[in-house]
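name: query_chain
kind: protein
chains: 1
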Amino acid sequence: MNGRILLVEADVVLGAVLAEVLRHSGYEVIFVRTLQGKGDRFDSLSAVILDIDTTSPEKELVWLDGLQAYDESLPIVLMGLQVPQELHHRLRVHLGRPQTSALTLVQKPFRNEELLAAVRQSHESRLPEEANGI
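structure:
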């Protein structure tokens, strides 16, 4: 197994497809449609993939607050349409990660290989013993 991924995607069909692609590539996947109201403890995550509304990312910023309990080395891969540099910077600052490479953006539409490459790259940049839980 390559690691444990938390996939947050509001679209059930897209989320199911992405989860299957990730599983087929050797990842264990926890697929949720929202982080809102999730009191679950997600242990030993290798990365988080979050679909973000780039026109109005306010709800995602709230969701990202829930991820702040994780070590800043936890890779977060954001999927979105066009992600302006200002929003990218705002997300980094919001997470308290202005200089880290642990926040990656994948622009929609993307090929499965592009998402897998972003996950793989961010996952491989962490030391294996750095998996964290909240």
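note: The beta strands are 3-8, 27-32, 47-51, 76-80, 103-107.
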